[in-house]
Amino acid sequence: MSQVRVPVITIDGPSGSGKGTIAKLAAENLGWHLLDSGALYRLTALACQRHGVDTQVESAVERVAKHLDVQFVPNEEETQVLLESEDVTKVIRTEEVGEIASVVAVYTAVREALLQRQRDFREMPGLVADGRDMGTGIFPDADVKIFLTASVEERARRRYLQLKAQGKDASLAELVEALAARDERDANREIAPLRPANGALVVDSTHMSITQAVEIVLEEARKAGLLV
Ligand code: DC
Question: What is the pLDDT of residues 191-202, one digit of tens each?
């Protein structure tokens, strides 16, 4: 008997493009599963930090990635993320952890260690996967591929507002600089560089509302015959 093919929508793009929010809303709307692949790199980074693992040593980081003890627990509000049974939902979103994640994500062995874990999220009735290489590397046979971008200034502005809302101090100029540096590292690394997948629809969300961007994703799903 042939296996049932599980449909996938991939949403790739740089930090702050809104892909996390848009992927979550699209998945909710469709009643599908969600893969936040960036969280796995962030969890690897946090686990290295907690266990005092030197992030300059690829094989040491690989071991951490292979043995990651994580759980994603869907809740009403947000998905709770547990690392070794501890709630790290908020900790993994910090700039510091994001920076380390971007460093460990350049290692081939780390990306390979996380490959199957990401593919395991592909379950019926479907998956919306967000990250950098969802459409290029992890789910090359995806039914719909979106590459979501926004200007670096707009992405920094969104992050600035988020941090302010959390009562944190932030400098817009520093955020622009940090995002540009991270984009550069993510786009120019040898393995799985950030770029639109073949056949991806490139969506610039600079002047778009979240609702408009979600509507585009759902429209693509409709066109691909994924909505009944
Ligand atoms: O999307 P994010 O900010 O949570 O991702 C954190 C880091 O992980 C980012 O700098 C790049 C990396 N990443 C990656 O290399 N591949 C993915 N599929 C997702 C994230």
Answer: 888 899 999 999
Protein residue with least CA distance to atom 13, ligand 1: 38
DSSP string, 151-188: -HHHHHHHHHHHHHHTT----HHHHHHHHHHHHHHHHH
Distance 228 CA to ligand 1 centre (A): 32
Provide φ and ψ at 10, rounded to 5°.
-110, 140
pLDDT per position as a tens digit, 29-49: 999 999 999 999 999 999 999
Cα–Cα nearest to 180, from 222, 143, 151, 142: 151
* C-alpha 98 – ligand 1 centre gap (Å): 8
- Find the 3 Cα to ligand 1 centroid distance in Å: 31
